[in-house]
Amino acid sequence: MTNFAGPHGWLTVVTLLFVVVVCPSGRANGSTAADTLNHAAELRDSGDFKGAAEALTQALQAPGVLAAERRQLEFQRDVLKRIKQDYSLTREELFRKLSASLKDTTRQEFEQWLAEGWFDGRSIDGQTYYLDVSISNLYFRHAELKSRRMDGKDDTPEQKGRLEICRAIKEAARREGKPYVLPHNFLCTMTVTASREAVPAGEIIRAWLPIPRQYPFQNGFKLDGNSSPVVKLAPENSPIRSVFMEQRAEANGPTMFEITYSYTARGMFFDLKPEAIGRPDLSDPALAPFVAEAPHVVFTGQIRKLARDIVGSETNSMLQARAFYDWICGNIQYSFAREYSTLTNISDYCLSHRYGDCGQEALLFITLCRSQGIPARWQTGWNTFPGFKDIHDWTEIYLAPYGWVPVDPWAGIFATRYSTALTEGERRELRDFYFGGLDYYRMAANSDHGMTLDPPKKSMRSDDVDFQRGELEWDGGNIYFDNYSYKLDVRELK
C-alpha cells in the first residue's frame, strides 16, 4: 500500500562542491556536482532520460569526485531506471489491461479518459508511458466504474471486520480504563528471495529483514527461527528495526533469507478530551525533531496556507490535528504509488495531486501537523488484517498529557470514501476511531522515516524512506526490487 529516495528523494546538494564536469547541452567546465544534479533533474522532468543519464555519467567519470558526491550522482542515475520500471506501459498495453479489467471497454471512452488525464503518464525519451498500477488507481479515483470491474476483490469483510474490531477495542479501553487492550499473539514468517540473476553465484548477499520494535502496544518479540546465521539483531527501540543476515548466492537457483518470529500486539484507543489537552515542551530533545522540517516534510507556502485555512482560529492542538485528519479524509483519494525513492517531496506530491497511498497520506498529515507545532511522526510496517495483508504506513502525534497517540489517515479515507457496505453512521464511527485508535492487526518496525539501517548499507537503498519489504546488497552494489521478492506469512495464535 505504500511505496519513495533519499532521505526520500530530497536532492541534498548543498554539500556537493568543486567537482569539474563536462555536461551536454553546452554546459561549461567548472560546473559543480550540484549543478549536474540540478541539470539532470531538469532533463528528466522534461522527458529527456537519455540526456539526464549522460550528464550524470560524465560527472561520475570526471576526476576528483568525492565519495558523497559520487553516491548522489549514482543514486540519481539509478532513479532514472526506477522511474522507467514504474512507468512501464505503452498506450496500447494500457488499453489491453483496461479491456481485461473493465467490462464493455470502448476505444472512445479510453481516448476520452486519456485526454482528461485519468491515467498517470509521463514522457520518457519521446514516448508517453503509463504507471503500471494505472488500472487499479482508476477504480479508486472513479468509483462509478466499480460496477463494471471484472477483476476486483470484495472488501466488505474488511469494512465490517474493522468496524467490529474498533467497537470491541473502544469498549475494552473504557471498561479497563487504559488505552492498550485486547492483546493478540502472532507468529510470522518473512521470506525475502533474491533471484538467480541478482548476483554471481558464490558472492555474499547481505540482507536486512524488518521485525517488530518495542512499543507500548507491541512487545514480546522472539526470534524463533532463521535460515542463515543472524549477524546482528537491531535493538528493540531502534527507529528502523531489522535482522541482518549474510549468505552466499546459490549457484543453481534463488537465494532465500527467512526468519520466523512471534510477538504480541494490542488494540489502542485514547478517549481524547479537548479540554484536557496541554502544551508540550517542544524544546524537549525527544519531541523537537518531530516539529521540524525533514526530507518530505517541508513547510512550503502551499502547506502553510492550507494549514492556516483548515485550523482557522482554533488553538487546541488536538482539534487542529483532527481538522487536518478530517480534511485529508474528505479531500485526498487513495492511489497506489510509484516508488518513494523517485519523488523529491512526498507530502507536496500528495497535496498537489490530491491522491496518494498510505505513506503519502501519512506524510501529508505529518507535515500539516508539524507546521503548526504539533509533534508528529511516521509509524510503519505491515497491516496484517486477515485476507487483506499488505505493507502499511500510519502516524503518531504527541498530545499532552496523553503522550504519543495513533492516527491512521489511510484508514480514515478508507472509512470515508470506500466503505460503501457500511451505513453513513458506521463509516463516521470507523473514521472517528482511527483518530486516537488503532487495531491490533499491525506489525510496526519503524518509528520515523528515512532512518539508517543497523548496520548501514554500503550501497544505496531500494527504499530510503520506508522499510517494510527488506533490503539486499552485495559487494557490487544494491539489489533492487526487480531482483528479489518478499512475503510475510502471519498466523494468529489463539
Q: Which value, in Å, is the CA radius of gyration?
A: 23 Å
Largest sheet: 5 strands, antiparallel
In the predicted model, the low-confidence regions spanning at least 5 consecutive residues are 1-29
- Please state the structural category: alpha+beta
User: What is the typical, i.e. mean, pLDDT?
Assistant: 93
CATH architectural name of the domain at 269-445:
Roll
CATH topology of the domain at 269-445: C8orf32 fold
Quaternary state of this entry equals single chain
What is the CATH level 1 assignment of the domain at 269-445?
A: Alpha Beta
User: How large is the share of residues in beta strands?
Assistant: 15-25%
- Counting DSSP H or I runs of 4 or more residues, the number of helices is 13
Principal-axis shape:
globular
Annotation, overall tally of beta strands: 19
Share of helix, binned: 25-40%
Could you give the distance between the termini?
27 Å
Describe the fold and architecture.
With 494 residues, the chain is α+β, with helices and mostly antiparallel strands. Among the domains are: 88-148, no CATH class; 269-445, C8orf32 fold (Roll). It contains 13 helices and 19 strands. The strands form 5 sheets. Strands 4, 6, 9, 15 and 19 form a 5-stranded antiparallel beta sheet that branches. Strand 2 and strand 3 form a beta hairpin. Helix 10 crosses helix 11 (358-371) and helix 12 (409-418) runs antiparallel to helix 13 (424-433). The radius of gyration is 23 Å and the shape is globular. The protein starts with 32 loop residues before the first helix and ends with a strand.
